[in-house]
Amino acid sequence: MPATPATTAFDEPTTPKVDFGEPTTPYAAYAGIDTLHTLLQPRSKEPAETSFIVATQVMELLFGLIRHEWTRAQQALRADDLREAGAALRRGLDAQDVLVRSWDLLATMTPVEFGAFRPVLGEASGFQSYMYLHLEFLLGNKNERLLALYAGHPHVHAELTRTLESPSLYEDAVAVLQRRGLDTSDPVAAWTAVYADPAAHELQALGELLLDVAERVTRWRQRHLAAVKRCMGAKPGTGGSSGLSWLRHAAETDVFPDLWAVRNVL
Predict the structure, then answer these.
(1) If we measure between CA atoms, which residue out of 75, 92, 76 comes closest to residue 209?
(2) How far is 11 from 138, CA to CA, in rounded Å?
(3) Where does residue 21 fall: left (phi above 0), alpha (psi -120 to 50 degrees), or beta otherwise?
(4) Is the separation of the CB atoms in 193 and 94 below 8 Å?
(5) How remote is the C-alpha of 55 from its chain's centroid?
(6) H or E element: which one contains 33?
């Protein structure tokens, strides 16, 4: 008589637990889901405003995640731990990819749809995002004047000031090159020496990861430009910015220009 096969947990579907004796589920409690969904509060009757708010909130969460990973990468670079720095930058790349794709939520918004709820925005503008400003400061695009936006928010102002006054992600990477014995008085020459050295695998990988970061920042800026151009044209931005011209300048500005310049030398 053949032996009866041992049963496994996968033989039959199990019924998930549905009674936790709590007012909410562990899932909702862990991720703050109840609070999260209360934050979606359109101010107009235009259906497209809901997509606009969701896209904005998703981007803000991703800004925070990217800041987290870039900060961890900086800490690792300062400790000369290129393995951990690389891991953090790669995790950040995944978040950047999602960030770029998040523009898909707004890509087809028409001028009529945007115009229907634009008045309820008042002077609100993505330009005022302090989490995004952290990213710009980390990239080395530092403008002390922008701190005035947060003069009434002491905690945010203090955090941004620390980011402004600390080395950028790129400066921490160049410091690694210096500690490895390279002359960084001319960063382009230093990176050129790295790429020309067959043995400098770790540093070459770092340079390529930084370029991956740079490319994704540019892609995000380009998608931002395209989305604004499509839904509102060249009209001034809600926060008083010059709108399209400011976004176009940002999209055309290289991130980590030294690393791009190396391509002209090799």
Answers:
(1) 92
(2) 51
(3) left
(4) no
(5) 13
(6) helix 33-38
- CB under 8 Å to 4, separation ≥6 — which residues? none
Return the exposure string of 208-228: e unless at least 16 CB atoms fall within 10 Å of the residue's CB, then b. Answer: ebbbbbbbbbbbbbbbbbebb
Q: What letter represents residue 7's amino acid? A: T
| Stated pTM of the model | 0.92
Other C-beta atoms lying within 10 Å of the C-beta of residue 164: 18
Note the pLDDT tens digit of each residue in 105-143.
998 999 999 999 999 999 898 889 999 999 999 999 999
Asked whether 51 and 43 are in contact (CB, 8 A), the reply is no
Which amino acid, 37? H
Fold of 46-265: Methane Monooxygenase Hydroxylase; Chain G, domain 1 (1.20.58)
Q: Are 48 and 116 in contact (CB under 8 A)?
A: yes
Buried b (16+ CB within 10 A) or exposed e, 123-156: eeeebebbbbbbbbbbbeeeeeebbebbeeeeeb
- Of 187, 260, 176, 164, the closest CA to residue 218 belongs to 260
Structure tokens at 227: 């989305």
Q: Are 182 and 197 in contact (CB under 8 A)?
A: no
**What are the sequence ranges of the domains in the chain?**
46-265
